[in-house]
Amino acid sequence: MSETNEIDLNKLHHVVLRETESDSIQEINPDFYRNLSNFIGDLKKQEFDGIENKIKEVIIDTATELTSLLINIRLDKISKSDNMDFKNLLDEEKFILDAEEEQRERTEMILSATINGKSKFLESISKNHKTKTVVVRFLQEIDEIIGADLEKYGPFKTEDIATIPYENAQALIAKNVATKIRWED
Fold first, then answer.
1. Helix, strand and coil percent figures for the chain, each rounded to 5
2. Do the Cβ atoms of 131 and 165 come closer than 8 Å?
3. What is the DSSP string of 47-74?
4. What is the mean pLDDT of residues 16-22?
5. Does 39 map to a domain?
6. How far apart are CA 68 and CA 55, in angstroms?
7. Average of per-residue pLDDT across 126-137
8. Residue-number span of the structural domain to which 80 is assigned
9. What does pTM read for this prediction?
10. Is the predicted pLDDT of residue 80 greater than 90, yes or no?
11. Domain boundary residue among 54, 88, 122?
12. How many domains does the chain have?
């Protein structure tokens, strides 16, 4: 691990370059993404005029592109390997991979239930998914609605936050009436 906790564009470029030059996932500082987030966040907070502001925007855009490239390269290495050593993966990358593993498990579950004639199980999954709740923020006022779970929700004002059934949330999001938000504990 050669980089210090401080991140700048040159260090980010160096990390990406090292990653592209190797077939294995390179070891980087466990706080790398947080430090990078601080670097980009601090840049965005700075106010400049004229050419200095344009330079700042180019630096932010370059850092964003390099970050995206780095994440994609590292995750691509994992997806193409049968016996990749996970020790150099950062916690944020493991978080992404957990979701991919969950998707594979769900795919196998549906496939197995379908080919083994477990229609009641599939019906149960479908019903539970339709009525699972999602947190949304309303972008405009809306009258009371009847949820997929047959419960009443609303009425809602602009900027209200509510937990509603997935199926209803998807319909409202598609109409730009609401937007999904992540509600972290």
1. 55, 10, 30
2. yes
3. ---HHHHHHHHHHHHHHHHHHHHHHHHH
4. 95
5. yes
6. 20
7. 88
8. 9-88
9. 0.68
10. no
11. 88
12. 2
